[in-house]
Amino acid sequence: MSHHKLEIRDLHFSYPDGHKAVDGISISVGHGESVGIIGANGAGKSTLLMLLMGIIFPDKGEIIVGDVPVNKKTLPFIRQRVGMVFQDPEDQLFMPTVYDDVAFGPRNYKLDEKDVEKRVLYALDLVGITHLKDRAPFKLSGGEKRAAAIATVLSMTPDILVMDEPTSALDHRSRKKIMGILKGFEHTKIITSHDLDMLMDICKRIVIIKDGKVLADGLAVDILTDSRLLDSCGLEVPLSLQNCPKCGMAKNSEK
Ligand SMILES: Nc1ncnc2c1ncn2[C@@H]1O[C@H](COP(=O)(O)OP(=O)(O)OP(=O)(O)O)[C@@H](O)[C@H]1O
Ligand SMILES: [Mg+2]
């Protein structure tokens, strides 16, 4: 299962205006790990994910998926193995129907229409939106669009799922639903988010990015309870772990 492994080695990237967004990041992610990437606004999280997907390319350093380095030549393979759900689902949905959007990837890989249909129905079922298959994506609610965007990636049966802020702007029910989908994905997951409660629930490991560098990398239970560390990069302990605002009682002593 080496193709589920991801190796990021001494990655550097500056935008064309000279702004250095990624400044020497190294992270190694093993098969089946779920890793949350956190950091203040502008820390470099989305830039890192775009480098992972080969949407942009590093100035220095390398990314290796399984045994394959990410570069222009290997992109078709990388895009098949690594699926990214963008922060804004509208960046991912552009066909007349949800079905066509979810079929887009498999059709692009020239699968025959029977296999395409199997993949589409499998992905729609996984995210629980089979009933929306003939609807126009732009007419869906925010949560439905997010689920459809995830289905467009799952129809490619990726080994590694990369998600940028999967629960942002979702109501409680949609957020829980998306969390259920993420938990159900058993392969490698890399998720950036400001929703630390969600990450606490889904990711065993957390990496903190600050000013384009890795500030901490360790177990979620250690990092997400370290208020001093989180505070130093503009974050706070997940609400579910904070003391009661009324009586100050610690959450874990409530029972
Ligand atoms: N196209 C661009 N040109 C120049 N600088 C950019 C560009 N896109 C992003 N940046 C800068 O790169 C840095 C990292 O941005 P990035 O979007 O990766 O941060 P982020 O950690 O994802 O933040 P957020 O939590 O707000 O999503 C920021 O300082 C940002 O201003
Ligand atoms: Mg971002």
Automatic annotation (TrEMBL):
Gene3D superfamilies (alphabetical): P-loop containing nucleotide triphosphate hydrolases (3.40.50.300)
Subcellular location field: Cell membrane
Enzyme class: hydrolase
Pfam family for this entry, one: ABC_tran
InterPro entries in the record: AAA+_ATPase (IPR003593), ABC_transporter-like_ATP-bd (IPR003439), ABC_transporter-like_CS (IPR017871), ABC_transpr_CbiO/EcfA_su (IPR015856), ECF_ABC_transporter_ATP-bd (IPR050095), P-loop_NTPase (IPR027417)
Enzyme Commission identifier(s): 3.6.3.31
Topological category with respect to the lipid bilayer: Peripheral membrane protein
Family matches, as SUPFAM superfamilies: P-loop containing nucleoside triphosphate hydrolases (SSF52540)
Keywords of this entry: ATP-binding, Cell membrane, Hydrolase, Membrane, Nucleotide-binding, Translocase, Transport
Keyword Nucleotidyltransferase included in the entry's annotation: no
Source organism, top-level taxon: Bacteria
GO molecular function: ATP binding; ATP hydrolysis activity; ATPase-coupled transmembrane transporter activity
Principal place of residence: membrane
Keyword field contains Hydrolase: yes
Gene Ontology, cellular component aspect: ATP-binding cassette (ABC) transporter complex
PROSITE patterns linked: ABC_TRANSPORTER_1, ABC_TRANSPORTER_2
Family, per entry: Belongs to the ABC transporter superfamily.
Stated name of the protein: Polyamine-transporting ATPase
Organism: Pseudobacteroides cellulosolvens ATCC 35603 = DSM 2933
Organism ancestry: Bacteria, Bacillati, Bacillota, Clostridia, Eubacteriales
